[in-house]
Amino acid sequence: MPKVVVIGAGIAGIASAIRMAVRGFDVQVFEANDYPGGKLSQIEMNGFRFDGGPSLFTMPQYVDELFKLAGKEPKDYFEYEKLDEICRYFYEDGLRLTASSDVEIFANEVGEKTNSSAAEIKRFLKKSATIYDVTHKVFLERTLHKLKSYLHLDTLKSVFRFGKIDAFRSQHAANESFFKDNRISQLFDRYATYNGSNPFQAPATLNVIPHFEYHFGAFLPKHGMYGIVKSLVKLATDLGVKFHYNKPVEAIVSEQKKITGVKVNGKLVEASVVISNLDVWFTYKNLLKNFKAPKKLLNQERSSSALIFYWGMKNIYPDLGLHNIIFAENYEAEFNAIWKEKSIYDDPTIYINITSKHIANDAPAGNENWFVMINVPANNGQNWDELIDLARQNILKKLNRILKTDISANIACEQILDPRTIESRTGSYQGSLYGNSSNNQFAAFLRHSNFSPEIKNLYFCGGSVHPGGGIPLALLSAKIIDQDLIDI
Q1: Over 70: is that where the pLDDT of 148 sits?
Q2: Nearest C-alpha neighbor of 359 from the set 40, 46, 49
Q3: What is the pTM of this model?
Q4: Which domains does the chain have, with CATH numbers?
Q5: Phi, psi (5° rounding) for residue 276?
Q6: How far is CA 139 from CA 446, 461, 473, in A?
Q7: Which pLDDT belongs to residue 156?
Q8: To 10 degrees, what angle do helices 11-22 and 61-69 make?
């Protein structure tokens, strides 16, 4: 029976372990932390529970697929609900919008409250669907680094429809052409942040992302986002996968450019296949010291990072829903601060996630669990303590102004996550959330492949490699390895 070692128990690592176990392989997962999940973690304090990282669940079929692949009933392990409401949006001029999952309702609200029309929303989402139709089988579900990927009929069809993906203008420029009201352009510009990019630079191809929410839907797991991790770890364990926590891998070992195993605690753990879920930058730097990292691929601009305040709140706020966005008045200035100045804008766009709106046990009665996040640059040695203190003040001022109440008086407890701690806890280089940014039209082709071009049977999964960051794409990286690459 071939032996497989997975480095890292992030969501892609767990998915890879499940897929290899289904193939009948002997699978071991080595994780440096004392818990699984990577960025998809959770925090508990003072009776409050918070999802530590990703807070939006889309494309649940990619999770369900893992259970079905193993011959299991997904509902026996994992339950989730489809949300009627995707997000609430707040603007400085007093405009408030609720993005219903029903496109007709959302489009009509935009038409009634703004200078944009319902028809503009529908036309935009039709374009989003077209981009998805052209790209998902070619760019998302297959390797871009093997000739055989380009010999499929659907690939050839997509090549002839390449112009439909809107790759040669920025996302913001495209959105301005769709919407008369710049506040609605801003609403759809924000989807660039789903993979840590700048809508004023990133290609309009990223307008595929809204299709995930408005066509497939937005969801919430019954036990919060960390429920995804728990259910998949249970499935993997049921399939015979062995998890080793507090066991960082020290080196990937090969002979004559073929995998022989990994080194853990100074000892060789033999394996025929190694799949690294560690950020590919650190995989090369720390685990493959005898091999030069491919400079063209690794020396690219990193994605943005995040500054997150986890606040236990001593009150209920009916104006807020599960997902909330409080927009910066000058969006371009905010992205210039992140990408050009490598700093934090003094009027940042604020995202607030409150799972206790749906999951009562996530906060004590009469309280709420606030996950408060702003986009910030990757860590380049900034004075983060000073930046965090100033950002906290600016966030509170903005929330007090928009919500017309004193937020700070109701903060019962607090934890903070910043780019430094994101890097140290999750092994993400510079604390970037999505590996490389997508700030140019060739970004999809510049991500590291899911296999090593030098070492046979060494593979890479997770957000730092193809096809990119976020839960759906991380899960697809594991699928690509399984269906497109593994050959033992």
Answers
A1: no
A2: 49
A3: 0.94
A4: 3-41+223-301+440-485 (3.50.50.60)
A5: -95, 120
A6: 12, 15, 10
A7: 45
A8: 30
